[in-house]
Amino acid sequence: MTIPTVDQLQAALATVNDPEIKRPITEIGMVDSVEIDPAGQVRVHVLLTVAGCPLKDTITRDVTAAVTAVPGVTGIDLTLGVMSAEQRAGLQEVLRGGQAQREIPFAQPGSLTKVFAIASGKGGVGKSSVTVNLALAMAKQGLKVGIVDADIYGHSVPAMLGVADHRPTQVEDLIMPVPTVTGVSVISIGMLKPRRDQVVAWRGPMLDRALVQMLSDVYWGDLDVLLLDLPPGTGDVAISLGQHLPGAEVVVVTTPQEAAAEVAERAGTMASMMHQRVVGVVENMSFLPCPHCGTEHKLEIFGSGGGDRVAATLSQRFGYDVPVLGRIPLDTSLREGGDAGKPIIDADPTAPAAQELTEIAAKLSGRGRGLAGMQLGLTPSSRF
Is the CB of residue 132 less than 8 Å from the CB of residue 208? Predict the structure, then answer.
């Protein structure tokens, strides 16, 4: 029997990614030692980033599977330790790539991450449900997606994703977003509170600080898309977002009724005032498919035309086309999925609401990255 070399074992371990950081455990200093005896028994010592790592069972399973798959290995003795303060500081330096703290990666000129802020004029229009399901639909398209639950007071996104009671892992002052079974990573102010039922009672400066922390102190890795679920209205968080992420593109969510459409126009106008581009309007709760006839007969419970009105008004106001991206029908599965932590995109992908959300996600993810709001890194030259 041929005994594998340590290099072969290291190569196998390099295929194991930390489930939170999404990078090989060999690359981020988690593999402390690897030994093998003449009988093919392998001893591996892996260092967890923090004591009580919530995903240590996943790491144990993945390491065991990778090592035992190497020809010649007869068994594995895996032990788990915890990084020292110095090792965590080194990991933090690796993850930051030598960049200064409190630098928002998505605001840098070279960022290739598409950032979409999901906004609404008023609460109760289903903005968070739209955000969560768009994220899952994009993930199903093979994209790496993250969600910032920037609705500081509402923060309902974690519950909709089934991770309301999860807490992020922290490496020194660097925070790992919470992974979900869908592949979408999420961070929310609700995850940073000592207790889930604790009330957030903050004003402007604290809200700004919280938003910056979720954008700069969280290790997002290489995302294709970042979605931000904004609070309703035109308050502090919307202003802070415009200041810190001027290149973010805004999707306005409304319902068909006149009252919702009027305030949705204000949310879109606020985005334009902050030099952000509004890329489209989503009309949620657009109609109820007739229980007897199906989608051929639409019951317009909340009226009609709200999405079209918002799109037309914003297009005229801005001087560029703001399309209606989609009209999502009322669907009990959409509500039930959010309550159960199983969004409709996963729970009932053939439902009309899920299909409409999937089409909206495809329109957004298929858009080319524009130059609006991007810093080009140009400096004026002297005239000769």
Answer: no
Q: How far apart are CA 275 and CA 322, in angstroms?
A: 15
Residue corresponding to tokens 């390099």? 14
Q: Which of 55, 84, 90 is nearest to 176 (CA)?
A: 55
Domains of the chain with bracketed CATH? 6-83 (3.30.300.130), 105-365 (3.40.50.300)
End-to-end CA distance of the chain: 76
| Contact (Cβ atoms closer than 8 angstroms) between residue 228 and residue 150 | yes
295 burial via Cβ count (<10 Å: 0-12, 13-18, 19+): exposed
- Please provide residue 179's backbone torsions phi and psi, each rounded to the nearest 5 degrees: -80, 155
Q: How far is the C-alpha of 132 from the C-alpha of 314, rounded, in Å?
A: 25
Task: Write out the two tokens for 170.
Answer: 């922290």
Distance CA 362, CA 312 (A): 22
**Could you give the angle at the alpha carbon of 22 between the alpha carbons of 19 and 27, nearest 5°?**
110
**Strand extents, DSSP E, 255-318:** 277-283, 288-290, 294-299
Q: Which residue positions in the chain have pLDDT lower than 70?
A: 1, 54, 96-102, 172-173, 193-205, 294-295, 367-384
Q: Which amino acid is present at 96? A: R
- Please report which residue ranges of the chain form alpha helices under DSSP H: 6-13, 56-68, 85-96, 127-140, 157-160, 189-192, 204-216, 236-244, 258-273, 306-318, 332-340, 344-347, 352-365
Q: Is 250 helix (H, G, I), strand (E, B) or coil?
A: strand
Of the candidates 110, 97, 102, 99, the one whose C-alpha atom is nearest the C-alpha of residue 375 is 110
- Phi, psi angles (nearest 5°) of residue 211: -65, -45
Q: Are 230 and 237 in contact (CB under 8 A)?
A: yes
Check residue 199 and give its pLDDT.
58
- The Cα 229–Cα 282 span in angstroms is 14
- This prediction has a pTM of 0.73
| Element containing residue 78 per DSSP (H, E) | strand 75-82
Please report where in the chains the tokens 């489209």 appear, as a residue. Answer: 280
